[in-house]
Design goal:
The chain is an alpha+beta fold. The protein has 13 helices and 20 strands.
Length: 449
């Protein structure tokens, strides 16, 4: 930035630390990673540039700087060890098949290259811990006075399923790979320099095992396990574990809850969009481990005005979808399939009463409500019919739309708001894949990949 010639800055290493690389969604990180703090200025546009020592050797990659009056010349670089791990991962995790003419008939070059150079992420820290500095807690766990470590408070359910032998709640971790763990989860890095112990896990290459020394019910145990990336409860990055997805039904704009959604734009823009209304839910989901593959939190982030949804007002308030016609919604594909099934039921010629009715906290405020209330109650009483789409949200509000009216208004809504299609390509691809899956792999009978 600021010119057209090569930009070079110089400084010294201020510290070596173990930090979270994420900014707005730090709780969703796989763990803390090694980072080098320097006093050389890192400005927008410098990210990705190499950092050299005084002998011309690359020591890291510039990626972040702090701004504001409280921080001057505070920049961070990714150490070469982390960069090497990344390069090793994309060479060994992907599909090594060659780009043959036969393969390109089904997939284009970009898709094949993405499969060959695939990156799933760093080795995950699949547990949560609490310090063991309190005397009562140590006494409860029967910790020897000379021992140090941390107590495991939560373990990822997916990790417990994946690894045959693994950590359990109330295990006390005393060593990782032979390094003694302090009561505050620190380990020695260089001489007397202490560091967050996450880097012993996140700094490994894929396939390298981790050995935990634990005290379980007063007995010493060694647990050796090869950790790896785990699906995050809230997907972390576009083109890593998620893509931009959406579904428009009768002007209701649904999207999955992802970190890129929460990190989009400025804080002021995000607050103005209405996300603060479900902040507690978002915070809980970001901190939680994923319990089952394929599950998504679906958020209504806008109501695009049209005759079909007249009487419902968005009021800058995101809402989390719970059920459609009294059936729990598993993910975006499940929601799309339920809507398509309802459309097929209506188009097949089955009798329907038609109409759209506002009910609950949103209310239409018109005389039509009383006339149609019995009709809506009838549909709601048996879990909904194909004639109506009854959306219930976790804040107990409800939106009722006519299925036929949703179909009829689709073209108008998309044209008015400049949306290319009602459903994103990713959802369509996953839905097509689901059609060929076993019944137990579908939302109604199990989980998706």
């Amino acid at each position: 930035t600021g010119g057209r010639t090569i930009c070079v800055t110089e400084g010294v290493v201020s510290r070596v630390d173990c930090r979270n690389y994420r900014i707005k969604t730090s709780a969703a990180a796989a763990g803390n990673l090694l980072v080098i703090q320097i006093d050389a200025a890192i400005n927008p546009g410098n990210s990705g540039g190499p950092c050299f020592d005084d002998e011309g050797r690359v020591v890291g990659v510039a990626f972040q700087g702090l701004e504001g009056s409280d921080a001057q010349n505070v920049g961070y670089i990714i150490p070469t060890d982390i960069v090497h791990n990344f390069l090793h991962a994309i060479e060994h995790e992907g599909d090594d098949r060659e780009y043959t003419d036969k393969g390109s008939e089904k997939e284009d070059f970009t898709e094949l290259r993405a499969k060959r150079y695939k990156y799933s992420g760093v080795q995950e820290v699949p547990f949560r811990w609490a310090p063991l500095q309190n005397k009562s807690l140590r006494k409860l766990l029967k910790m020897p006075k000379e021992s140090t470590g941390v107590v495991v408070t939560r373990v990822s359910p997916l990790a417990s399923e994946r690894y045959e032998t693994f950590l359990q709640e109330n295990d006390v971790i005393t060593h990782i790979d032979g390094a003694p763990i302090g009561d505050d989860y620190t380990v020695p890095l260089r001489q007397d320099e202490l560091m967050n112990a996450d880097f012993l896990i996140t700094g490994k290459r894929c396939g390298d095992p981790t050995v935990f020394d634990v005290i379980r019910e007063t007995k010493l145990q060694k647990i050796s396990v090869t950790l790896g990336p785990l699906p995050s409860n809230v997907p972390r990055e576009h083109n890593l574990d998620c893509t931009p997805e959406w579904l428009v039904i009768g002007g209701l704009l649904f999207v999955p809850l992802t970190c890129p959604l929460l990190a989009y734009g400025s804080t002021e823009e995000l607050e103005a969009s209405g996300y603060l209304k479900i902040y507690d839910f978002i915070d809980e989901q970001v901190h939680e481990f994923r319990k089952e593959p394929g599950k998504e939190s679906i958020v209504l982030i806008d109501i695009l005005a049209c005759d079909t949804n007249f009487g419902y007002y968005f009021r800058q308030s995101w809402r989390v979808l719970d059920t459609l016609n009294n059936e729990k919604v598993v993910n975006m594909v499940h929601l799309y399939n339920m809507y398509m099934d309802a459309c097929k039921g209506v188009n097949s010629g089955a009798p329907r009463d038609g109409g759209t009715e506002a009910e609950g906290s949103e209310g239409s405020g018109t005389g039509a409500k009383a006339a149609g209330e019995g009709m809506v109650r009838s549909a709601a009483g048996n879990g909904g019919t194909d004639d109506f789409l009854i959306f219930r949200f976790k804040d107990k509000s409800r939106i009722v739309l006519g299925t036929a009216e949703c179909q009829a208004s689709e073209k108008e809504v998309l044209e008015q708001h400049g949306i290319p299609k009602a459903v994103s390509d990713g959802i369509l691809k996953r839905a097509a894949k689901e059609k060929t899956a076993e019944p137990s792999e579908k939302p109604g009978g199990g989980t998706l990949d």
